[in-house]
């Protein structure tokens, strides 16, 4: 315990150190009013910017062959389970594909759905050699479909100037590739017009 004089001296010295910019008279005035506000200079903390991990560029992906399917994997039977999963996905998306379901509602959902695993057929084309190609969609890009046929051949079919048919549980939908030139991720947000004339 300190005596009153020692305590007073300690407080005066403490306030002088804490408030170096104030004069002795101001400090004494503060003491008489019994209100003490200490000045505090806080150091500004510099925030470290988090570096966002950069993905591969398109050129790097091509060089690494990330999207290429090896020849030994190009077999129709390997991807049949993927087709079964896709059918279940569409049934869940369309609430069971009931007979009384409205066709335009199912068509609208199919246009925005992920088509990896769907079996499609080229029904019309400006290039006759594409007509009749049927298989499972393995990859969808902005301008092409990569399709594996029952003959274990990987076909790259352009969307432009081709019409594709897609059948599931008796419901047949037609996709006009010229109006379908979008990435799968972009299609989910696009509004498609169900009516209108389509020229190949």
TrEMBL record:
<dbReference type="InterPro" id="IPR023534">
    <property type="entry name" value="Rof/RNase_P-like"/>
</dbReference>
<dbReference type="GO" id="GO:0006364">
    <property type="term" value="P:rRNA processing"/>
</dbReference>
<comment type="subunit">
    <text>Component of nuclear RNase P and RNase MRP ribonucleoproteins. RNase P consists of a catalytic RNA moiety and 10 different protein chains; POP1, POP4, POP5, POP7, RPP14, RPP21, RPP25, RPP30, RPP38 and RPP40. Within the RNase P complex, POP1, POP7 and RPP25 form the 'finger' subcomplex, POP5, RPP14, RPP40 and homodimeric RPP30 form the 'palm' subcomplex, and RPP21, POP4 and RPP38 form the 'wrist' subcomplex. All subunits of the RNase P complex interact with the catalytic RNA. Several subunits of RNase P are also part of the RNase MRP complex.</text>
</comment>
<dbReference type="GO" id="GO:0005730">
    <property type="term" value="C:nucleolus"/>
</dbReference>
<dbReference type="GO" id="GO:0033204">
    <property type="term" value="F:ribonuclease P RNA binding"/>
</dbReference>
<dbReference type="GO" id="GO:0001682">
    <property type="term" value="P:tRNA 5'-leader removal"/>
</dbReference>
<comment type="similarity">
    <text>Belongs to the eukaryotic/archaeal RNase P protein component 1 family.</text>
</comment>
<dbReference type="InterPro" id="IPR016848">
    <property type="entry name" value="RNase_P/MRP_Rpp29-subunit"/>
</dbReference>
<dbReference type="GO" id="GO:0000172">
    <property type="term" value="C:ribonuclease MRP complex"/>
</dbReference>
<keyword id="KW-0539">Nucleus</keyword>
<comment type="function">
    <text>Component of ribonuclease P, a ribonucleoprotein complex that generates mature tRNA molecules by cleaving their 5'-ends.</text>
</comment>
<dbReference type="Pfam" id="PF01868">
    <property type="entry name" value="RNase_P-MRP_p29"/>
</dbReference>
<dbReference type="InterPro" id="IPR036980">
    <property type="entry name" value="RNase_P/MRP_Rpp29_sf"/>
</dbReference>
<dbReference type="InterPro" id="IPR002730">
    <property type="entry name" value="Rpp29/RNP1"/>
</dbReference>
<protein>
    <recommendedName>
        <fullName>Ribonuclease P protein subunit p29</fullName>
    </recommendedName>
</protein>
<keyword id="KW-0819">tRNA processing</keyword>
<keyword id="KW-0597">Phosphoprotein</keyword>
<dbReference type="GO" id="GO:0030677">
    <property type="term" value="C:ribonuclease P complex"/>
</dbReference>
């Amino acid at each position: 315990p300190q005596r009153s004089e020692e305590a007073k001296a300690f407080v005066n010295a403490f306030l002088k150190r804490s408030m170096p910019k104030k004069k002795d008279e101001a400090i004494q005035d503060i003491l008489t009013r019994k209100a003490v506000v200490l000045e505090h200079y806080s150091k500004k903390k510099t925030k470290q910017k988090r570096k966002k991990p950069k993905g591969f560029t398109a050129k790097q992906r091509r060089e690494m062959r990330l999207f290429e399917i090896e020849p030994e994997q190009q077999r129709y039977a390997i991807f049949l389970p993927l087709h079964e999963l896709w059918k279940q996905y569409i049934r869940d998306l369309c609430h069971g594909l009931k007979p009384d379901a409205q066709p335009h509602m199912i068509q609208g959902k199919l246009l925005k759905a992920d088509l990896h695993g769907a079996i499609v057929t080229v029904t019309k084309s400006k290039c006759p050699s594409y007509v009749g190609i049927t298989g499972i969609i393995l990859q969808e890009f902005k301008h092409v479909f990569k399709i594996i046929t029952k003959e274990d051949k990987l076909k790259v079919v352009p969307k432009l100037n081709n019409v594709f048919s897609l059948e599931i549980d008796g419901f047949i939908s037609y996709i006009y590739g010229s109006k379908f030139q979008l990435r799968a991720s972009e299609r989910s947000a696009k509004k498609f017009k169900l009516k209108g004339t389509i020229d190949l």
